[in-house]
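Subject: design request, 277 residues
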């Protein structure tokens, strides 16, 4: 089973912070060319300041990743730099609180635009490029080698009600369904699409939430059977597997990485030593 991504070209969105940044760095350290994309140009410049961004394997792109033109420019910049794209990781997320009864419809639309439509549009244009590359190369079809791999990041909010973040919760569920639909359509082209649903992982958003809610950490630990919050690099290994040839027969799946948190009933606290989350 080959897990190598040496020489592959990846686009990673949401790569200015947290999990997206960790995934991009992980890929680059393992020999991949990586386009780090984010709306936060300052974060990209700061985090990747030590890399050769002229001729090395790392490039950055900043822009509104929910806008069609920016997405087209992102793909063009990647092709200009590396000539191809083999991997896409949609890690860009916008998380906001919302009142389920008083939520402004525009806020829900914003969650869908940033967390679903942007990723979907980017996946569509990248998939078309992957298909074109496969047609031009002609190699690998007989052996079942993949023509490309796409991974979407989502959270437990897509599988369990999160009324205080209703718009985001709806967006996560939609992202998972988009994953399944794209996987089915792209399978004949040897392009795999999967999602990683995470919970107890120290994301950029979780770091911010822990600062404003002193009791959140203890509640999360109580509701996580493994009793801890994972570091971002523990999620990157899972994403790495899904984009590698080692997972070439895996598509349309939503893989949960949450330390067992989804096993615990959020209302009754059912589980080994658990309390309500």
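Subject: RE: design request

Done. Sequence follows.
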């Amino acid at each position: 089973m080959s897990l190598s991504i040496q020489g592959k070209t990846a686009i990673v969105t949401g790569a200015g912070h947290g999990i997206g940044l960790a995934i991009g760095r992980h890929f680059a350290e393992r020999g991949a060319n990586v386009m780090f994309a984010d709306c936060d140009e300052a974060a990209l410049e700061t985090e990747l300041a030590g890399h050769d961004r002229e001729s090395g394997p790392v490039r950055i792109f900043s822009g509104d990743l929910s806008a069609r033109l920016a997405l087209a420019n992102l793909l063009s910049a990647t092709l200009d730099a590396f000539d191809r794209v083999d991997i896409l990781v949609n890690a860009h997320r916008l998380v906001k609180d919302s009142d389920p009864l008083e939520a402004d419809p525009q806020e829900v639309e914003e969650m869908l635009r940033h967390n679903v439509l942007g990723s979907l549009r980017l996946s569509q244009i990248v998939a078309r490029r992957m298909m074109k590359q496969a047609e031009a190369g002609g190699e690998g079809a007989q052996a079942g080698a993949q023509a490309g791999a796409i991974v979407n990041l989502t959270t437990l909010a897509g599988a369990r009600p999160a009324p205080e973040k209703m718009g985001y919760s709806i967006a996560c569920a939609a992202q998972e369904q988009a994953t399944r639909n794209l996987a089915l359509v792209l399978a004949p082209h040897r392009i795999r699409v999967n999602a990683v649903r995470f919970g107890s992982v120290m994301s950029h958003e979780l770091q911010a939430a822990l600062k404003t809610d002193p009791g959140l950490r203890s509640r999360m630990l109580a509701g996580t059977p493994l009793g801890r919050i994972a570091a971002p690099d523990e999620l990157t290994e899972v994403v790495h597997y899904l984009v590698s040839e080692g997972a070439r027969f895996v598509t349309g799946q939503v893989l949960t990485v949450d330390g067992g948190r989804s096993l615990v009933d959020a209302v009754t606290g059912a589980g080994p030593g658990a309390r309500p989350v």
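The longest helix spans residues 105-137.
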